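Data availability (excerpt). The following record was deposited with the supplementary files.
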Amino acid sequence: MITAIKNATLIMRDHYIPDAVLLLEDGKILDYGEARKLAIPAGAEIIDAEGAYVGPGFVDIHTHSDGTVFFQDEPERAAQHHLKHGTTTLLPALYFSMDTAGYLVAIDTLKAAMQKKECANIAGFYMEGPYLNPKFGCDKENNPWKGPVDAKKHLPIIEAAGDLVKVWALAPEREGILDFVLDAKKANPGVAFSVAHSEAEPTDIEALMPYGLRIGTHHLNATGTLQKYPECRTPCVDETVYFNHDIYAELICDSRGIHVDPYLLRLTRKIKGDDRIILISDAYACDGPVPPGYDDVDDINFDHAGEIAGSKMTLDISCRNMIKHTGASLVDVFKFASYNPSRAVGFLDRGEIARGKRADLVFVDHAMKVQRVLLKGQTV
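Predicted structure:
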């Protein structure tokens, strides 16, 4: 059965197609085009978009929770929350606060959840750890990975997760980190690495690029500034991400510009270009006290020390904030939230409206309010 979406403005990678028809079959995009050129087949099931913008489903490669509960605790609830907001593909992020046993339990829980229809948008794991710089990140007091890189501790995690890991986040300055990288690549040769929670120098980071380091985890957050000489700033993580075009920059874009100042968001677009920006929600679950002056902040979390602890967002909200802070168009933010993250982690069958791609779609209005979501051609 063919499904035809009519009265839509399609959001393509670099343009719009107004008054368009989109044909779907067997969970994939069959064809698309202007209504005056593309006839709807007889007998097709009709979905009237009623003038909505229709773009590819969002791909959130870095999210820990629905803002209240972690994926490993209630995966169905968290997955459905994101799906209803247009995220048709996501990678639950497992944080360094877990020890080996904790990682193994979380991996087993999520593997089981991925077999359920309620979790059909879970596509693997984003491992935010274990080997990050212990100076950075929320809940850093409870980091069990401050010691040396130890294969006895990390190999069970690598083996349990296998090729479901799409990203390993790490701090390149950690002594012995290459041993971990080689162990991770042996289990999953195509995995991406990300510089995260780090104060590495450019040479530390660039040395890992041949092994697959191609992402900067929450760019401009938990990234150190090295000062070799008094009053002289020297290059560190953020500068290295800016300098190397092949490294994607993840951005947490909250409504107040707390994670990343709006001026820096605009600077990042200018330096990196729109092909290397990835919007993430980095939704976390934390009920720490709200620091003075932040009483009206409702889309980020704070840990028990009063430090920023991720967000309460979904990607539709991130897109809306990016439009506000940078003047980006709908075409731009769909690239940041769908096409770019898909390419960064190797999901080549989705992330854009193109023939043969998965029919993961989100209908939005001009203000990025989600109206309808399709997962593999089926309304959710």
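Summary of structural features: The radius of gyration is 21 Å.
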